[in-house]
Write a structure and sequence with these properties.
This protein is of the alpha/beta class and 129 residues long. It has a single domain, classed as Rossmann fold. 57% of the residues lie in helices and 10% in strands. It contains seven helices and four strands; from the N terminus they run E-H-H-E-H-H-E-H-H-E-H. It has a four-stranded parallel sheet, sandwiched between helices. Helix 1 crosses helix 2 and helix 5 packs across helix 6. The model has no long low-confidence stretch (mean pLDDT 96).
C-alpha cells in the first residue's frame, strides 16, 4: 500500500501540478491509498473554517485512515532518530520520523515531497514512489 504524506496532499488541495501531485492523481482511482491519522490532523489544522475542515475530512474518508504510532513503533522511531543523528542527520519534525518509521516497519511505500524523508530513504531503506 501507499501512504501519502501531507506535503503531497497540501499541494494537491492547492491545485499545484508538482510531479508528486500528478503521481497522486494517477493513483487515486486505481490504487488503495492510506491516510495516516497524524497526516489527517496536519491537513485539517491548516484549514480556515470548520465547514471547510468537515468537507475535506469527508473526502478523506474514502481512503483507509490508519493510526501511525503505537508503543513499539515509538521505540523504533526513537532508535531511528538516534541512528540518523549518529550519522549527522537530524530529522526536523517528529511527525515525519513517525511517518517514515511506520512505512519502513509496515512495508508501505511513501509518496512525499519533503526533504526530511531523503535520509530515511538512503540510510534506513524507506521505500518511496
Amino acid at each position: 500500500m501507499i501512504l501519502v504524506d501531507s506535503s503531497v496532499w497540501i499541494d494537491h488541495l492547492r491545485r499545484r501540478a508538482t510531479r508528486q501531485v500528478l503521481q497522486l492523481r494517477s493513483l487515486m482511482s486505481s490504487t488503495p491509498l492510506l491516510v495516516g491519522d497524524l497526516i489527517l490532523c496536519e491537513l485539517l489544522r491548516g484549514l480556515r473554517s470548520d465547514a471547510e475542515a468537515r468537507l475535506i475530512e469527508r473526502g478523506f474518508r474514502q481512503y483507509e485512515i490508519v493510526p501511525l504510532c503505537d508503543p513499539g513503533l515509538a521505540v523504533t522511531a526513537a532508535a531511528n532518530y538516534r541512528f540518523l543523528r549518529a550519522r549527522g542527520v537530524t530529522v526536523r519534525k517528529l511527525a515525519d520520523l513517525i511517518i517514515g518509521t511506520f512505512c519502513i516497519e509496515r512495508g508501505h511505500a511513501l509518496l512525499h515531497s519533503d526533504r526530511d524523508f531523503e535520509p530515511m530513504e538512503r540510510l534506513l531503506g524507506l521505500r518511496t514512489i
